[in-house]
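A reminder from the course coordinator: this example appears on the midterm review sheet, so study it carefully.

Given structure:
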């Protein structure tokens, strides 16, 4: 009997889950609250563990075309001097790829059969019995399946049907981020991170090297709303990094020029959840484990979730096996993502203390979520 799945949330995690489920032979529908699938103008860094999952999802070649592989990765002090570090305390040159979030979402969505995604559906409720699960939406419609997957982000509605609701935790850091056209003189294929006291600045290429993604991380004594799209002020960003390496000034100056963009993002996460699943409902990505970006793992961990979940559901011989599969998924993923969440907090403190106390990332990069899931079947 073919399993039926409903995914709530059409971001990268939700669409990746839908692709993985469809490839596992599961009938899937995605319900997204926005009127169209879209990602804001910003980049994401894909690490070896996430790229491994994208190969499984059939978009490896597309990532090769749309992304920008880092030929080199430079960790520097605020004045441009090199910071000494061990190879696995930063990215792995040649094995990490920068990609525009919209390009990644489009590649994944392109793997789905037409009609899989239903936009304009804001989830407001959930119910289940022994045999099925139902998501309810603001327009009064419902969607019933053998399993419902909450991929509805850090402000997840469905999380409240698994654990007691808890507000996201403000990190005390605000990120100014966006895209600028590639700068003359900036080395092609290079990621650079500048670190200092209480702030740091990151630049990496996306869209086959045509654009540079930048993020300036600065302290904030007051909480800023969690938003991917609030406008940022280039002048304020320039003031924060006045006196730093002139390359940073060149990037900031380009924000106001043709093709530049700037947003301000209050950074939030949550303490690891005590559980992810309840009966036929489970969580994925930021709905389960929102994390700070300091290890570059938010999207990569959501991709691991997607493949692991689909792998375990794919071996269920009937709808009756769904709760057991979800329990196995939670058991496989919860401790690992909790470790990444807490490690991301520690790494942020390391960047903001001039690159001290950096985390060895081998345990992150060398992990194969598909192989670990298969071992449980």
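Designed residues:
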């Amino acid at each position: 009997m073919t399993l039926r799945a409903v995914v709530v949330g059409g971001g990268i995690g939700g669409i990746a889950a839908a692709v993985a489920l469809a490839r596992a032979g599961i009938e899937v529908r995605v319900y997204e609250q926005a009127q169209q699938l879209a990602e804001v103008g910003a980049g994401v860094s894909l690490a070896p563990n996430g790229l491994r999952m994208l190969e499984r999802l059939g978009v490896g070649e597309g990532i090769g075309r749309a992304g920008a592989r880092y030929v080199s990765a430079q960790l520097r002090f605020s004045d441009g001097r090199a910071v000494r570090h061990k190879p696995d305390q930063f990215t792995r040159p040649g094995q990490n790829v920068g990609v525009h979030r919209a390009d990644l979402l489009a590649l994944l969505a392109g793997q789905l059969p037409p009609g899989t995604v239903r936009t304009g559906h804001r989830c407001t409720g959930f119910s289940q019995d022994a045999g099925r699960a139902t998501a309810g939406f603001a327009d009064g419609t419902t969607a019933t399946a053998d399993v419902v997957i909450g991929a509805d982000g850090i402000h997840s509605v469905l999380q409240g049907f698994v654990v007691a609701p808890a507000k996201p935790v403000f990190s005390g850091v605000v990120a100014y981020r966006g895209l600028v056209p590639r700068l003359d003189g900036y080395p092609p294929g290079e990621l650079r991170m500048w670190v200092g006291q209480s702030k740091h600045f990151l630049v990496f290429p996306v869209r086959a090297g045509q654009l540079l993604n930048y993020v300036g991380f600065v302290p904030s004594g007051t909480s800023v709303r969690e938003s991917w799209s609030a406008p940022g002020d280039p002048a304020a960003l320039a003031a924060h990094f006045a006196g730093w390496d002139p390359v940073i000034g060149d990037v900031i100056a380009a924000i106001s020029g043709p093709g530049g963009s700037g947003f301000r993002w209050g950074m939030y996460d949550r303490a690891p959840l005590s559980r992810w699943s309840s009966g036929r409902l489970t969580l994925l990505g930021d709905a389960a484990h929102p994390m700070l970006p300091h290890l570059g793992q938010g999207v990569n961990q959501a991709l691991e979730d997607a493949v692991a979940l689909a792998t375990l559901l794919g071996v269920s011989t009937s709808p009756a096996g769904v709760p057991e599969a979800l329990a196995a998924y939670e058991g496989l993923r919860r401790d690992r993502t909790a470790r990444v969440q807490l490690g991301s907090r520690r790494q942020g403190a390391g960047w903001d203390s001039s690159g001290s106390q950096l985390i060895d990332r081998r345990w992150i990069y060398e992990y194969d979520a598909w192989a670990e899931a298969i071992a449980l079947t």
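The two ends are 18 Å apart (CA to CA). The chain has a mean pLDDT of 94.
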